[in-house]
Specification:
By secondary structure, the chain is an all-alpha fold. Helices cover 69% and strands 0% of the residues.
Length: 512
């Protein structure tokens, strides 16, 4: 052993090669990356959470582009969004069309025609930016014309939209409304069939229900509208279809059922003003007049519709409150006058008002012009009644001054409004009452008795003012005599023996 050499008691030290260390580090990193990748893969495989709920603007856009009712607050948001976009993208034809449709819907929901000129400017701008294949703008103009009760224009725009894109299902409801307003009930069937080929769902079922109602198929109409309410995805749409169900229930005299529908509609959408008015109508029929008056006033505050003003006025009149009634009639005239400045045709509600509570001759003149332009069932009935009222009042400037001829013309129109072969398939207590009173005035007691009784069978509560008059007229006519029965029918024969007898077979005459 050499002097001065230090011996390590633990033996010689071993050093790890660097390549071994590097290998260990690589393996560790690979393991970490593998575990991380596995975790990421597992996370990616997990089902994603529900997508965020659409905002108010998106909900309103979906509604207006599908032609269904939209919530009023959502409409305000949508209009703001579209206007903001158009400030930076003024040549976005689609945005202009959506903006126009939103303004149409807002005006309709609020019965505020001042929104319609803005809607028209937006829709025409869309057409100017994109003159060809712009079905959305054409359809919007059809909806605007229907809202203004300009049914010839609505038909023109809707037909243009159909030609631009025949597969666009939302065009066909506009065609249905236009043809209905024109009194062309056969033409309604074609767009309804095409609509049902292209689409199913709540909006289509509701549209079918409206057509069934006009045909007099009340059970089918009720089933279709109930299905529409059950299938509706948004509260405003569901409330609208529930309100229609309430209308149908009231039309057949089911006051309590109607009230339940109207209340449910208001629970779903408190801004469903038609349901508020419907609730008032049902309450009045139930004798709860204080609640009915409050309901009508609330409905008019939210949606100042001439129809609601007329109903409230007649309720006041039935209660002996003549001054309050006159205030509502003056309000109706002002509503029609103001709406006319924005393109709305108010001849129908104004004619109905003037016939019973104003100038029947003026009602005849306005409704005749309306009937020549758009001869719907509703206008035929209103003109028939105006002619009758003018004849009763001795107005000499109708039917060339011949009062009897005025009554005969009235009856021809009343027949058209109440017989399905003439297009008047809807079962309306008011229409039957009008026909019965016209027949009574002409001395045709048998048909008069039958139609007055029919009115009260359809709905004994159809009007707080006119239903009592129908009962009084029926009482004044007395029981039918043998001479009023069809030839070969004797007292005691079961009622079924009358089935199939036409109006013309009833002694005393019916349709001229």
């Amino acid at each position: 052993m050499e002097i001065g050499h230090r011996v390590d008691p633990g033996g010689p030290r071993r050093r790890r090669p660097r390549r071994v260390i590097r290998a260990a580090v690589i393996v560790s990193l690979a393991g970490c990356l593998g575990l991380g990748g596995l975790w990421a893969w597992q996370w990616w495989r997990q089902p994603a959470g529900p997508p965020p709920a659409p905002g108010p603007g998106a909900l309103a856009r979906t509604a207006v582009t599908a032609g269904v009712p939209a919530a009023l607050p959502d409409l305000v948001v949508l209009i703001g969004e579209q206007e903001a976009r158009l400030r930076t993208h003024p040549r976005d034809a689609r945005a202009w069309a959506v903006l126009g449709a939103a303004y149409v819907e807002r005006g309709r929901r609020l019965a505020d025609a001042t929104f319609y000129p803005t809607a028209e400017r937006a829709l025409r701008t869309s057409l100017k930016v994109r003159p060809r294949a712009n079905a959305s703008a054409l359809e919007g103009l059809a909806a605007l014309a229907n809202a203004r009760r300009d049914f010839p224009a609505a038909r023109t725009w809707a037909e243009a939209a159909r030609k631009a894109d025949g597969t666009r299902w939302t065009t066909y409801p506009q065609l249905i409304d236009a043809y209905t307003g024109l009194g062309d009930h056969k033409a309604v069937e074609r767009p309804l069939d095409r609509l049902m080929e292209l689409r199913s769902g709540a909006a289509v079922r509701a549209r079918a229900g409206a057509v069934y109602r006009d045909k007099g198929w009340r059970e089918d109409a009720t089933a279709a509208l109930w299905e529409a309410a059950a299938q509706a995805e948004q509260p405003a749409e569901r409330a609208a279809w529930l309100e229609r169900c309430g209308q149908l229930a009231f039309e057949r005299g089911d006051r309590e059922v109607a009230l339940r529908y109207f209340r449910e509609a208001l629970r779903v959408d408190p801004a469903q003003w038609a349901a508020r008015a419907g609730q008032a109508r049902a309450l009045a029929a139930l004798g709860r007049t204080s609640e009915a008056l409050s309901g009508y006033r609330a409905a008019l505050a939210g949606q100042p519709s001439p129809e609601y003003a007329l109903e409230l006025g007649e309720l006041y009149e039935s209660l002996g409150l003549a001054q309050d009634a006159r205030a509502q009639y003056d309000l109706l005239r002002a509503q029609v006058r103001n709406a006319a400045a924005d393109g709305v045709d108010g001849a129908l509600p104004l004619g109905r008002l003037e016939a019973d509570h104003g100038d029947p001759g003026e009602a005849v003149r306005g409704l005749r012009a309306q009937f020549r332009r758009q001869p719907s069932t509703a206008v035929a009935d209103a003109l028939a009644w105006a002619l009758h009222r003018a004849a009763v009042a001795g107005v000499t400037d109708v039917a060339d001054g011949d009062v009897v001829e005025a009554e005969k013309e009235a009856l021809r129109l009343a027949v058209r409004a109440t017989e399905s072969k003439h297009g008047g398939g809807v079962r309306s207590a008011l229409y039957a009452y009008h026909r019965g009173m016209i027949e009574k005035s002409l001395g045709r007691e048998g048909p008069a008795r039958r139609h007055l009784d029919e009115a009260l069978q359809i709905n004994p509560y159809f009007s707080p003012l006119h239903a009592p008059k129908a009962r009084a007229a029926l009482t004044a006519l007395g029981k039918p005599s043998v001479t009023e029965m069809p030839e070969g029918v004797t007292p005691g024969v079961p009622a079924g023996a009358w089935v199939g007898a036409s109006v013309g077979e009833v002694a005393g005459g019916g349709a001229p």
